[in-house]
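Let us practice reading a record.
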Amino acid sequence: MNFTSNKNIYRWIMIIAAVVITSLILWNTYNFFQQLKENERRNIKEFGIAATDLQNQPLNANLGDLGITVMGNTTSVPMIVVNYKGEISSRNLPEGIESDTTKLKKLIEVYKKENEPIVTIFEEQPFITIYYGNSDLITKTKYYPMALVIIMLLFFSVIWFFYRSNKAGEQNKLWAGMAKESAHQIGTPLSSLVGWTTILRDTDVDPSYIVEMEKDINRLKMITDRFSKIGSIPKLTELDIVHQTRQAVDYIANRSSKLIKFEIDLPDQPIQVKLNEPLFEWVIENLIKNGIDAMKGKGTISVYLKADVYNVFIHIKDTGKGIPKSQRNQIFKPGFTTKKRGWGLGLSLAKRIIKDYHNGKIRVIESKKDQGTTFEITLNKV
């Protein structure tokens, strides 16, 4: 069993233990609440019996202290007493209610719903009826389990948030490390290729071949530079985004099949935006390549750029199979891919480059089945 499996087991043990402890607390709280209600009801019954006995004693009888003590101790439970004559009296109610008969009658209806009224009998006839509500202690105890559940939910939410943040941080470090290692690995054969082109210049090889090789070598250098920038804060330079977009699109267009049609609609005047040139072109190329894959190598790629006072908007549209609604919130997540071959990192890195490095936005603004998908990149103007 590896370390990751052990961590998962410990995590589940902690979650189960927390659920068990919370359940025990709630169960004990419920039992305490029920016992408290039963004690209050018993006290109200004793109050009713004492009140009935005191009211039916002869005038010259020795009343004793017991009944008076019982009645005097019932000071926390709000109650309304209605005797056999229909006369109403009350105890422990808020000020302004005891003298208002209308409010007392409304309160009686409320108390009926909270607790069953208590009726005392004298000479086999109902003598007084006691309507009572919950004391402050009962009311506070009633809401305690709810508060406990909310606290536990918040506690689990915080744990989940830190777990996700930690996991995302580990993934970011892993991808950054993979990118830098890829750049390092590409650098070795790249240096060798540069040397070979120098040697070939002294031979009878057609110079046009060497020119094309140097183009690809420069391209590899740029790819290496892109990978090396992942995981570190890249430098942004004020550049013409119209030129940079056209340059990125032209590169892919010149190397794509003739079955792919490119429609480019860019402004004539330059628009200045702070960019990291290699990373921005990577995003454009990545979106276009995804579109070509979605069209299975045949269709139209449309690139449209517009600007308002504050922002620049770049739309990249394909005529591919589209993205189902159920997947649109997942396509930018690392590892998510619908391709048989692929790591699912392209769109995730594109979002990171635009959002984290350029303080912009990237999203799907439209996608229809078998009609295509439109991505939008939003960047701030200088």
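A brief commentary: The mean pLDDT is 80.
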